[in-house]
Amino acid sequence: MAVQEAKRANRLKSGKLVNKLVNEYWEDLINAKKTGKKVVYTTGLPIGPFMAAQDMAWIHGEGYGARVAARHEEKEPQTFAENKGFNRELCSYARTQMGCAMFAELGVPDDLNPGPIATEIPAPDAIVTCYPGCSTGPQWDWAIERVFGKKIPWFNVVIPYHMGRNGSTYMKGEEFEENVKYVVRQFEDLIKFLEVVSGKPYNWDKFQELMGVTKKVGQLRMEAMELCKAKPAPASFFDWSIQIAPVNYLTAWPGTIEAMQAVKDEVQERLDNGVSAVPNEKYRIFWEGIMNWNKLGWMADKFASYDATVVAGRYTHMAFWHEPDTIDPEHPLRGIAINHLECQLNLGYPITEERMMTLSKDYSIDGIVFHGARTCRSFSRSHFLLAENLNKKMGIQSTSFEGDMVDDSFYKEELVNTRIEALIESLEAQKSRG
Amino acid sequence: MYQNLSSDEILNKLAQIAADPYERAKEWKMETGSKIIGCYIMHFPEELLHAAGVLPIVLQVKEEPITTGHAYYPSYFCGPTRSIVDQAAKGELDFLDGFVGGDYCIQAVGGAEVVGNLLPKVNNMFFRLPVGNQAWTHGDIVTGLKELKRDIERFAAKEISDEEILNSIRIYNKNRSLIREIYELKSVHPSLLSSSDMLSIIKSSMVIPKEEHNEILETLLPKLQANKDSIKEEGVRVFLSGSFCGAPKNEILELVEQSGAVVVGDDLFHGYRYISDNITEDREPLAAIAAHYIDKNTNVPCPTRCDPKTDWPQYLVDSMRKYKADQLVIVMAQFCEPHMFFYPDIKDAMQEAGIPHLLLEISHELDSIETIKTRLEAFVEMAV
């Protein structure tokens, strides 16, 4: 039986550079109206460069929700949203951001005392949806549009589900090519929409420059993550979750190349010096599911205590400019479309399974943790199939527990402990059998 | 065969079909040797499938508890998707030759993925129906229809002509028109049919050949018209809203009426939403079907369609006035995200219009029927 000692995960130190950029971004956003910038609300995958090219500010709904939760300010906006009638089974990112948006539009009720981040959200001048693999995103943005009195212009880029029809596979086939063309055409219309909202012709030069930055940061991150195929792994999935901002809502923000280069250099240095993310790596785990932001540090240490490195995950490794080489900065729309269409949530089951099997092999995975985010049904939808089929086809053991992205009321800590312990025990037994 | 039956006897026959929804389809398959395609619930062009000579049926939620399906789909997903997964896991959908899924709801996407895995021999198709209502949406829906038509043709090994699609549109339009006539009758004489009767009419329409259903309705309609003046009308006039995917449970519908209410209208998927509008017959067929998806959503707005030009809460306020309804009962399937996103707006609209409403969030397992009964009785009593 695995004995749990209190051990700490050895987190990357260069992440502090990212914190500085995050703070700059929020400062810019909060003061956007004062500096004459238009504010665009977005949800889904990163589309910041579209707005940044026009010198507009943008709020990424999920990123905002995660930041509010990271500052432990999520309860008040969630309570406000629930008091207004939003059911707590709705996406907790959406409930959190809706609550904050309602603070901005309706004012803070007397019986709530929200924190500063939760009440700093500026009202939108436009809404742009670009949501792959989840119907919740457009429905959430439509709810935002109604909160602000149906007066805010809204553009919804429809990202079609890549089911894998007629033999289409990852980045290949008739269905894939049809989908790419369809999304590119919508991006062209999005640009026209942003010209109207910003009141000026589109700045293609700046957009191309930003997509060059995006490509570079994407490449650095993928290269850094691939260094973790080494045993023991120099960094963990939890590090990549912490470093997600430069490829998410901070995409192409000034300084992101330097920040990601520093991360990669640190990973390389660790590798050269035999420094690992977990002091005594015995097991290599795949995290299947969305991140649980208010449990991140706790989880990292929990696995470290069991000598287990969570080395990869669908959340981090199958999205966020994970195919940077497809981006041609001179003609960036096709590459953006490919990265969005082929991201982790938008793939049909057979394609998802094939990608998971490839990652599991590449990262020498012993076991999988299925984090069933209660209010992210897009992520959880294929968990049971994946657990069964990866065990059948690759002999990989797994465990699962329920949790959430930013609503920790869905956690049952003792159950989580027991489930993780059970997985480690079965991995130990498997290793001892040779 | 229905000519000599009374309206009650015909309604009982329809209730039997609805209670065992796949039996007639299986018989049809034996009789004709043709193929059956299951459509995941909501937005599917049954006419296109019909034109290919196959029988499209809308997969139904079964009232029985979910058991085997628990191994394949988490318990915090909606009842309709879990029920269909459960049926596939139990082998109850093995009679299907194909099924069509869509991406209008992520829970339905996941459900179709699981069904695809459980039924590997069944042809697994997909209808891309883009949301919204922009200048380009109609053209994009036509493209989605063309892709589906291509896949149906490959599946059925036959080309589908425009004339065949138009013929199917006519048959389906007739069915919708007949059911709307029954709705008209019921709105004026709400006690003529119970809401369970209406549910049986719609549900049976979804699972048997439309030609047969048309014949039944053509027999039923005059009998209902003949009965209308002998019906005594009393009760609180209630409009039913919600359940825009799976059918509401009969038990719930009966409780509404047992509480002293009569149902004068609804926007249920197993209700008016399914038949609210016909497809134009004087236009190129795929363009007509695409326009139908936009138009029917204007008639009865659907929260999955993300069309900001529509206003579901206002539609409900207008419907309450049109049908002179006293109260609104909202039936929300537990975990139904599109509905949960809209409820606050509906609540505000009802409060502003001074219309009393009751929200019933219904779990598939119906674990608190007594609570629902008490709440319904108290609610209806308010209007007495």
Main pleated-sheet profile of chain A? 4 strands, parallel
Enumerate the spans of chain B where pLDDT stays under 50 for 5 or more consecutive residues.
none
User: For the report, how would you describe the main beta sheet of chain B?
Assistant: 4 strands, parallel
Distance between the termini of chain B: 43 Å
Description:
The complex is a heterodimer of chains A (434) and B (384). In chain A, helix 6 (136-147) links the parallel strand 3 and strand 4. Helix content of chain A is 49%, strand content 11%. Chain A contains 17 helices and 8 strands. Chain A has 434 residues and is of the alpha/beta class. With 384 residues, chain B is of the alpha/beta class. Chain B has helices at residues 7-19, 23-32, 46-51, 79-89, 106-118, 137-156, 162-188, 195-207, 210-227, 250-258, 272-275, 285-299, 312-322, 337-353, 369-383, and strands spanning 36-39, 55-58, 98-102, 123-127, 236-242, 261-266, 327-333, 357-362. The N and C termini of chain B lie far apart (43 Å). The chains are: A alpha/beta (434), B alpha/beta (384). At the A-B interface, helix 6, strand 4, helix 7, helix 15 and helix 16 of A face helix 5, helix 6 and helix 14 of B.
List keywords for this structure.
heterodimer; A: 434 residues; alpha/beta; 4-stranded parallel sheet; 17 helices; globular; B: 384 residues; 11% strand
Please render the helix and strand layout as text:
The complex is a heterodimer of chains A (434) and B (384).
Chain A lengths: L14 H16 L8 E6 L3 H5 L4 E4 H10 L4 H9 L8 H15 L19 E6 L4 H12 L6 E5 L15 H25 L5 H23 L10 H6 L13 H18 L9 E6 L7 H10 L2 E6 H4 L15 H9 L7 H14 L4 E7 L3 H4 L2 H12 L2 E7 L9 H20 L2
Parallel strand pairs in A: 1-2, 1-3, 3-4, 5-6, 5-7, 7-8
Helix pairs in contact in A: 1-10, 3-5, 4-5, 5-6, 7-13, 8-10
Chain B lengths: L6 H13 L3 H10 L3 E4 L6 H6 L3 E4 L20 H11 L8 E5 L3 H13 L4 E5 L9 H20 L5 H27 L6 H13 L2 H18 L8 E7 L7 H9 L2 E6 L5 H4 L9 H15 L12 H11 L4 E7 L3 H17 L3 E6 L6 H15 L1
Parallel strand pairs in B: 1-2, 1-3, 3-4, 5-6, 5-7, 7-8
